[in-house]
Known about the structure:
Chains A, B: This is Thiamine diphosphokinase. Chains A, B: One of its GO terms (biological process) is thiamine diphosphate biosynthetic process. Chains A, B: Keywords: ATP-binding, Kinase, Nucleotide-binding, Transferase. Chains A, B: Its EC number is 2.7.6.2. The structure is a homodimer. Chain A is of the alpha/beta class. In chain A, about 25% of the residues lie in helices and about 30% in strands. Chain A is built from seven helices and 14 strands. Chain A has helices at about 20-25, 35-40, 60-70, 85-95, 110-115, 125, 220-224, and strands at about 5-10, 30-35, 50, 70-75, 100-105, 130-135, 140-145, 145-150, 160-165, 170-175, 180-185, 190-195, 200-205, 210-215. In chain A, the strands form two sheets. Chain A has a ten-stranded mixed sheet with strand order 4-3-2-1-5-6-7-14-9-12, with helices on both faces. A four-stranded antiparallel sheet of chain A has the order 8-13-10-11, with no helix packed on it. In chain A, strand 2, helix 2 and strand 3 form a beta-alpha-beta unit. The longest helix of chain A has 12 residues, at about 85-95. The N and C termini of chain A lie far apart (about 45 Å). The interface of A and B includes residues 16, 56, 111, 141 and 163 of A.
Amino acid sequence: MPRGGTFNLLVGGPKANWPADLTEKIVGPWIGVDRGTLRLIEHNVQPVAAIGDFDSLAAPELQRVRRNVKDIRQSQPEKDFTDTQMAVSVAFGDYGAEQVDIYGATGGRLDHFLANLFIVLEPQYKRYANRIRLIDKQNTISFYLPGHYQLRKEPDKNYLAFIPLTSIDHLSLLDEKYQLHDEPIPYPISLASNEFTGETGEFQFDTGVLCVIQSCDTYEARHE
Amino acid sequence: MPRGGTFNLLVGGPKANWPADLTEKIVGPWIGVDRGTLRLIEHNVQPVAAIGDFDSLAAPELQRVRRNVKDIRQSQPEKDFTDTQMAVSVAFGDYGAEQVDIYGATGGRLDHFLANLFIVLEPQYKRYANRIRLIDKQNTISFYLPGHYQLRKEPDKNYLAFIPLTSIDHLSLLDEKYQLHDEPIPYPISLASNEFTGETGEFQFDTGVLCVIQSCDTYEARHE
Lengths: 224, 224
């Protein structure tokens, strides 16, 4: 069983939001979350583990999951943690993941997306914040605890957003196009449409949890 | 010029997320935000007003906007408020809107979506919270300030989520499938996948700002 390195989670959001050629480009290991498990198998990926109540799967679909995944953790429909949270725990706790990249977390139901976005605010998950990313075809979402950081620009992303998910103190954006200096941020806000001025972006803050989104427009967005 | 009632804003998110037959079903009045203005005109809707820097529009597109909209508010690319925020101010302040429904606010760039989601946390906009909704093909997002409420179930929506956007006190979900009683919520969280037990859902809380999402699965989500 694989240990360490990056684990990829596929949750049940719409395929339309996946990065192009997701399952060919990202080799694995993969963990399936609920219907995401079936989608991995349909794309000829054998997940190392699967988490979910699987109550939306038809009987033959569930059998297909059982045939293809050794480590299945069946969750209860009424539970304190979401399937995605459980999968994050399994990846870090049982498989010793260094990094967890979550796909299929955007689009569709926004209560699901926000549950995924806010995972890192839960006390049990906060310590993993800078090792979790949510990735879709237009956005890479990463998370930061207080400190000083230098962020690397992704080649295909033009926009940079700083999004305090809680109140945070002394936010400084040091070399971005639009800068801030020791700004107190009293409530969640999306400081969107900033840009890198070079290959990296430097920032720091003192308290709270900061989300950073690198994003791009799609061809469709510009031309539809 | 129309006054009062519901004003509809169209912002620039992907059409794929619009409710079906949006511009036929929602008669207006409409306010266009940046590229949303052009999309309204392309759908034979004459917006009462348009807000944006319009810097992503080609010259003929901008001319088309100018020919079709009397009340154009050109914003600066570097500004303290987003175009959507300005449009909300124009609708409530200049047009006396009772309610503002925002379409095109989801999908695509998530820094934009979160900027729209967090508008009601801004002190200048908080008083409008319960008169603003974000609507897409699967989600209706509404906002609440402290109080006691009875929410009406939308016929096509199965899921109900309560999403404190700040810490909130004494959250009670009184007659929903999964109930809470005087629960303190210390940080933003998406209490997702709840359900109505009848035609209405009763809830109350004492402090902070609460977002409520009614959502549905799509046919594609179940069968893709």
